[in-house]
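Quick one: examine the sequence and fold tokens given here and explain what the tokens say about the fold. Here goes:
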Amino acid sequence: MRFLLKGAIVFLALLLLPVRVQAQDALVLLRTVDVDLGTGTQTVDLSDTKGAFRAIRLKTIEGGVRLDNVVVRYVDPPEHNERRPINLLAGERTREINPTPEGRFLTEIALEYQRVAGARAVLEIYGRQAPEDAIRERAATDAVAEAPRSGGKKKKKAARRSYSRQAEPSSPASEPPSQPDVAADADRAASERQAELERQGREIEQAEDERRRAGADRAEAARRETRSAPPPPVASAPPEAAPPPVPPPAATPRAAAASPLACVVDNTCTPVQVFFGTNRARQDLPKRIAFSWQDSGALALGGAVVTVPRKVRRDSGSIQRPGWWDRYVLRIPPEGDPGRHFVIVPNLLEIYSDEAAFLAAVARHMAEAGDYKDHAFIYVHGYRVGFDDALYRTAQIAYDLGTPRAEDGAIVPFGSAFLYSWPSAGQLKDYPYDQESARLAVTHLRSFLDVVIARTGVKHVHLVAHSMGNVPLLNALSQFIGPQTSGAKVSQVILAAPDVGTREFQNLAAQIKPLAEGFTLYASSSDLAMEASRKVHKNEPRAGDVVDGKPVIATGIDTIDISAITTCYFCFGHDEYVEQDELLGDIAKLMRAGLRPPHSRTESFKIQGTAEVPFWRYQP
């Protein structure tokens, strides 16, 4: 059965593959159009194009445009409407529009696009043309098209006969008309047209080669500059313990130039540095270091670079990874395209030999960490999360909490990002295993917190735990020595949808509330994962749940009911704290300025409950 299913998937993928262009077909540049995006629509006259065309493609040369509809009109109807959203950034092009088995004569193309006042874009319009279409004359088809439609087939045939008579040379009535060598003329014209198309193709290929060589030259120059530049200062670590330098995020022009990543040079991605601790067992992939679901019994310290795509439009909170279409139709490799997907850079994921090497790498990163270089956050993931997915989520949070750079608007990730990844099995069926694994990770997480808070020199540490990740975090904090250690302080602790029983949560909350400046709990009645966990635990409410309109309340903790924000459709609703702009904005205000209570951050948080023990509810 599995074999049959795979065979069916491959067969369907082959059916969905774009029509393969024959070797003799060529793309012909028809028009270069300067588009005023403030108008919302523009019509391009193509009535003077030579020959017929079997498909249309658009390419953006400058600027960007969101097309809502592309109307292709021909000499002979019907017209074609490509009515779908098409987002084109500079250098991108569409797939083929209205591919047909035979060439058709164009009259015009109408573009309908999203209005952007004062903005412009430059588009190129290409047509795919076969050699036999290139030598076809438009006159016969024009005559047919101009014939009155009410005349039916007879008038169209008469128009074709009229065109044929005009094409014949005059001759004496007594002699049969001499016939021109039509085949020879057609062959000669086809050869000339084919040579012209090949010449155009060579020119395009040469231009692309020159562009790639220029990009490679810029990247090599940047690498030489980096090698010749003096190394950045390293704090609190002996020189012999320093590992090879880890490229920091693109917080400054120098940082972007120092990165060896091609997508950084091309400005199609942003690298985010993530430092991590884990007690997962190491299980490497063919191309890079990786970790499994098993417990190693020891704490490992490492660092990774995750690229966030800039080539495509991305909503805050989203993590693009290659899907079925990307893998099997577009042929994108499983690791992804850095310009379109979140990608873990293989040669920049490393395990440090000891704590000193880890601290040296963190110090180098903090020296160039942007406006919030004194801030750091530690993210502890929840149930059913693999190591790679935890890295993606940590990078996404750092990027979406970041700030735009003044000179070019590029996002500078927030502070320094840390991840603690406990050995979740990553499977829906393994809830009992994950629950035990989370509790076994408490001692290792306690050690990791001590390293980051007490020894990195960071001034403001924020802790973020999601779902079952609250189990090791809350228990590790209950063993923690206090908020003040070597000048470092725990600032904000954010508990998102905690999968912890209410009685255990209230007991732990009473112990840990002196450890930080503020505790915030996000709970939701729409979280299906909380509902499932409650059933597993004999209907005991969870701390991240809202039952009968009331969340769990604990003294010293700001509890916020975010049920109204849960808007995702056909999903668990378990990631709302990172997938909603409202919550990302709230977390940003908490981390950057420590604003409390919640209604001081936004008027949408309304006070509920009693004055002695209040809670807040999101009401837009």
In short: Residues 262-618 form a domain with the Rossmann fold fold (CATH 3.40.50). The mean pLDDT is 78. The CA atoms of residues 445 and 505 lie 18 Å apart. The two ends are 50 Å apart (CA to CA).
